[in-house]
Design a protein that fits this description.
It is built from 31 helices and 12 strands. The protein has 827 residues and is α+β, with helices and mostly antiparallel strands. The longest helix has 35 residues, at 249-283. It is elongated. Residues 188-192 have low confidence and may be disordered.
């Protein structure tokens, strides 16, 4: 007696102990899940981590403050509203919100605070000048030079020069302009991000939030406050208002995490309803259905509990499809076992005998079937996508557990009260079909083979297309508000529609940081002049050189700041200016004096600028919260659309002395499209080899193995033809459906071998397995199809493609493999 048969007999003879153990295990799983579960909603964790472009995108997403920024788009589709007035009041209201740390609603140079703080910002830039240029600049601090400068400006103002008055207000000491000169080759003073569309129909307001964490609950709380603010502000605004859109990492995570609840509920409900409907349609029994669902619930709990230990950093959002897939796959075992169990009971066997005999007949096939399915999902680990690797491992655990529990606990839950059924039209229809196949299998096999070959030819010929979506939008939830806002901003504000490339430099120290950005600045400027790139913005001007800093501080120590301050004050009074109006200039003198006396705080813009300074938006766009990590934004001549274009851009940007990590969504996609196609071939090849090895052990003959593999190949061809006909698109992740279909689809061939090998008259024996195979194929298809209800496009499209593939495999099993086996008499 086999091990699985002994285990089934053991549990059936001890039903109370079995039920007690099951309940205790379920309670323990639920408790551990509640205490340990964490959810990972980061879409970047769906991407393969071996690519430097992906890892660098995660660095940018987490180490730069933009991860805690929200971008509001004030969109007037009609173009008739006063957006300036609305934006001004909107920005002022935002500054009063407790969750808003600072607000960018205008260029720093257009605000009073920004103009005043430019002199604070100029101090570290001044110290980063070449020693010769620095010497010339601080020469302006000599009392005589200051007196002459102010007298000259006074004379020009009296002569009616508005330019002189602007220069005096902007740069009273004459130090700001030379300090800002290096910025002309790095980035513009408007914040390096446009805030107004060229057609005037969209204004952007950026808010840095004070959220502490990046987890889903924190993002949800921030977005609740944002929605509350939008409602309150709308109530205060009189007259027509533009649409207020919002995007950013926080908006995406909040939206996706809330959508996850919808997906979990509706995909599970959809799967259970479809599976229950198919089972009841086939067997007209409620108790075995409840028993199957009870076992599957236990498997889901066990798989999720295992996931909390195997992946302590959090279960990725795609693992929400775990339960739906398990319900669709695991129910197959229950249907097959119940079909043979029911046949035994109807023929007079008692509960224990029917249970043990059904396991004896199907146990080996179910173990083989669970192995092929489990390996198909475990193969997702080779995809290098952390999210899908998690999904694959957890479903593999659940499916193996489902096979074991269906051959044991299921019979305990069914109980001894089985009543022989009455009229079973589905069994009779299956019986009639099997009888016809016994009499004449060749016509059915020939017609099916011809149809599948034609579909495969259609799949291979250049007729119709299988669409492949290689854009970030295919990874975001359907009808995403944050996604719509982001696309609208890009549409209105992007540089000719060209998506920039990000270059991140992580230097070992300040000296290396300065050297790398200086080299990058020179190389990219030359590339721009040659027309190889359109534009670029870098933090080179703020990459302070320790050598220059030391040299310039030594020069600064020779300045008599007391005399300078006195001369500046006197010159202002003599010129008729109010010294109180030049507080920024006096603050700059105080900062330089502190530096001359050994206090280097003014050289650190993070310490010198107020926390609510609008200039922080400019600086933090380029400089990470981690020291010596910076980002540049390069606009290529066109958006990268292929690996060849990616390589061309890389060749232009990389060079001696530049250890830059290039990234950006279009740049990442150029890596991922070849990756997804190679993984399709690699994983499919792995599954084919595994299937052949496993089936050799089961069949021990070449004929039936060859029939099954040909059938699988034709099923895949029909699946591709179905993609062409239905217009269902492939994307970076649903290509993983192909190895899954190979792993799941081969199971039906295994069960058909068991059916034709049964002892007894074919009139009863063969249909007792073929009927459950039909139902199990339908439930598996339904389980995958229920994922189409998910908002997450990666999971939804994966489910739909798998449903199409499994349906094709079921068709070829019933109308090609079964008649072929009967025709050739394979046993």
């Amino acid at each position: 007696m086999s091990l699985e048969t002994r285990f089934a007999r053991f549990t059936v003879r001890r039903p109370r102990w079995t039920v007690f153990a099951v309940v205790a295990f379920a309670v323990a799983c639920a408790f551990l899940i509640k205490e340990r579960i964490a959810v990972d909603t980061d879409i970047l964790n769906l991407l393969p981590q071996r690519f430097d472009s992906v890892r660098s995108l995660k660095v940018y997403d987490r180490e730069f403050t933009q991860a805690r920024e929200l971008t509001f788009a004030l969109w007037d589709e009609s173009g008739s509203l006063d957006l300036d007035a609305f934006t001004e009041q909107f920005g002022d209201a935002l500054r009063k919100e407790p969750w808003a740390k600072r607000v960018l609603d205008r260029s720093p140079m257009d605000s009073t605070e920004g103009t005043r703080e430019i002199q604070t910002l100029a101090v570290p830039l001044l110290l980063n000048l070449e020693p010769t240029a620095f010497s010339e600049a601080i020469g302006l601090l000599q009392p005589q030079a200051l007196t002459q400068r102010l007298a000259k400006k006074r004379a020009e103002i009296e002569a009616g020069s508005p330019k002189a008055e602007m220069e005096l207000n902007f740069d009273p000491l004459g130090l700001v302009v030379p300090a800002l000169k290096p910025l002309s080759g790095s980035f513009s003073l408007d914040g390096s991000r446009p805030l107004v569309s060229t057609d005037g129909t969209l204004r952007v307001v950026v808010v840095a939030t004070n959220q502490r964490g990046l987890d889903a609950l924190t993002c949800q709380e921030i977005m609740r406050q944002v929605e509350g603010f939008k409602t309150r502000f709308a109530a205060t605004w009189s007259g027509p208002a533009p649409q207020v859109l919002v995007t950013g990492r926080t908006a995406y995570v909040g939206e996706m995490s809330l959508g996850m609840k919808h997906d979990i509920v509706w995909t599970v409900i959809g799967s259970v309803v479809l599976v229950a409907g198919v089972f009841y349609f086939g067997f007209r029994r409620l108790r075995p259905l409840l028993a199957i669902l009870g076992v599957l619930l236990l498997c889901c709990l066990a798989a999720v509990m295992a996931g909390t230990f195997a992946f302590p950093n959090g279960l990725n959002v795609v693992t929400m499809g775990l339960c739906s897939i398990l319900v669709g796959l695991g129910v197959d075992f229950g249907m097959l076992l119940y079909g043979t169990y029911q046949t035994g009971r109807n023929s007079g066997e008692d509960h224990e005998t029917a249970s043990v005999n059904s396991v004896k007949l199907l146990g080996r096939g179910i173990l083989f079937g669970s192995a092929t399915t489990a390996v198909a999902f475990v193969s997702l680990v080779l995809s290098e996508s952390p999210g899908f690797a998690q999904l694959g491992v957890l479903i593999a655990i659940g499916i193996v557990l489902a096979a074991v529990l269906m051959m044991s606990v299921f019979y305990v839950l069914v109980g001894r009260g089985h009543v022989p059924g009455g009229h079973d039209f589905l069994f009779e229809a299956t019986q009639s079909y099997c009888d016809r196949l016994f009499r004449s299998p060749k016509p059915v096999m020939a017609v099916t083979a011809a149809a599948l070959v034609l579909l495969t030819l259609f799949a291979c010929l250049p007729v119709g297309t299988v669409r492949f979506e290689a854009n970030p939008q295919s990874l975001e939830p359907a009808n995403s508000k944050a996604g719509f806002a982001l696309r609208k901003i890009k549409e209105k504000l992007s540089s000719g529609g060209v998506e920039p490339v990000l270059a991140i430099i992580k230097a070992k120290d300040a000296r290396d940081f300065h050297a790398q950005w200086t080299a990058a600045q020179q190389r990219w400027q030359a590339a721009k002049e040659r027309g190889e790139i359109r534009n670029f913005s870098t933090p080179a001007a703020f990459a302070l050189s320790p050598e220059r800093l030391d040299a310039n501080l030594a020069q600064l120590a020779s300045v008599d700041f007391a005399a300078t301050r006195q001369a500046f004050t006197k010159a202002l009074e003599q010129g008729g200016f109010d010294p109180a109006s030049f507080g920024g200039a006096f603050s700059m003198l105080d900062a330089l004096s502190a530096l001359a006396h050994g206090d280097r705080t003014p050289a650190d813009w993070r310490a010198a600028l107020p926390e609510r300074s609008i200039w922080r938006f400019v600086l933090e766009r380029f400089l990470s919260t981690t020291p010596n990590v910076g980002a540049a934004y390069i606009t290529p001549n066109k958006t990268i659309a292929s690996a060849q274009e990616q390589q061309a851009v890389r060749k232009v940007l990389e060079g001696p002395g530049i250890d830059a990590h290039l990234t950006g969504w279009s740049y990442v996609m150029a890596d991922l499209v070849p990756w997804s196609k190679s993984k399709l071939m690699e994983l499919s090849f792995v599954m084919v080899l595994f299937n052949i090895a496993l089936l050799v052990l089961l069949y021990r003959a070449v004929g039936p193995l060859l029939v099954l593999m040909i059938s699988l190949a034709l099923s895949i061809g029909a699946m591709i033809a179905g993609l062409k006909i239905t217009g269902l698109s492939l994307n970076l992740f649903n290509v993983l459906a192909f190895p899954l279909v190979l792993g799941v689809g081969v199971d039906y061939g295994i069960y058909i071998v068991l059916a034709v090998r049964q002892r007894g008259h074919h009139t009863r024996a063969l249909p007792s397995i073929v009927k459950p195979v039909i139902l199990s194929g339908l439930t598996t298809t339904a389980g995958f199809a229920s994922l189409g209800l998910a908002n997450n496009p990666a999971l939804s499209s994966l489910g739909l493609v798998c449903a199409l593939g499994v349906g094709c495999c079921l068709f070829s099993t019933l109308f090609l493999i079964l008649p072929a086996y009967l025709w050739k008499g394979y046993k």
